[in-house]
Amino acid sequence: AQSVTQLDSHVSVSEGTPVLLRCNYSSSYSPSLFWYVQHPNKGLQLLLKYTSAATLVKGINGFEAEFKKSETSFHLTKPSAHMSDAAEYFCVVSDPSGYSTLTFGKGTMLLVSP
Amino acid sequence: NAGVTQTPKFQVLKTGQSMTLQCAQDMNHNSMYWYRQDPGMGLRLIYYSASEGTTDKGEVPNGYNVSRLNKREFSLRLESAAPSQTSVYFCASSESRDGSFEMNTEAFFGQGTRLTVV
């Protein structure tokens, strides 16, 4: 069975400073990994996904994530935060092992101050 | 360019009432899902349908039933609502032949239904 741990429930940054949202996963197989973003009172939007093609994955809005198998991590980063990045972020894992589905982390709320 | 459409967006129910949440997708996806989102819990899978005509239980199926009406539509029914079912419900779909997320597939989500049971 797969699982996801988002290490911080809240992260606060100032506008223009780097963002780091941490995610560790557990999976029996080579996983597919995703980051989704949810803005207040909105649905979920895919930021980026890892499917073994490349360990450094670039997503929308300047976000990227690096898959590190040895550390079982898939941390999300952005060099410079913008006010519009304030949202909740979910790390998600899927095992390609038959009738599997997405397993969500509990979410990290990103707060961006001026 | 509708994607995944859920109705209603908001609903208040009294304990014991029943209701059906509707979901439709226009992307010709095989797989559809119902999740609930509660504070600090992330999203938890209620039921999913890997293909038209099949449904399977997810992590938290108790108190719910589903119907995959056709390839486009997947409804979630609460037969006798309870306060513990107060939540935000999300429908999703993906181009996945067997319910698994193969390479280059992703889930597309609706805007959610905010349900309150009093």
How would you describe the overall organization of this protein?
The complex is a heterodimer of chains A (114) and B (118). With 114 residues, chain A is mainly beta. In chain A, strands 2, 5, 6, 10, 11 and 12 form a 6-stranded mixed beta sheet that branches. A 4-stranded antiparallel beta sheet of chain A has the order 3-9-8-7, with no helix packed on it. The mean pLDDT of chain A is 90. By secondary structure, chain B is mainly beta. Helices cover 0% and strands 49% of the residues of chain B. Chain B has no helices and 11 strands. In chain B, strands 2, 4, 5, 6, 9, 10 and 11 form a 7-stranded mixed beta sheet that branches. In chain B, strands 1-3-8-7 form a 4-stranded antiparallel beta sheet, with no helix packed on it. The chains are: A mainly beta (114), B mainly beta (118). The interface between A and B is medium-sized, with 27 and 28 residues.
Total E-strand runs of chain B: 11
Mean pLDDT of chain A: 90
Distance between the termini of chain B: 35 Å
- Stretches of chain B where pLDDT falls below 50 for ≥5 residues? none
Largest sheet of chain B: 7 strands, mixed
Largest sheet of chain A: 6 strands, mixed
Pair with the biggest interface: A-B, 27 and 28 residues
Principal-axis shape of chain A equals globular
Helix content of chain A: under 10%
Tell me what portion of residues of chain A adopts beta-strand conformation: over 45%
The global form of chain B is globular
Helix content of chain B: under 10%
The computed structural class of chain B is mainly beta
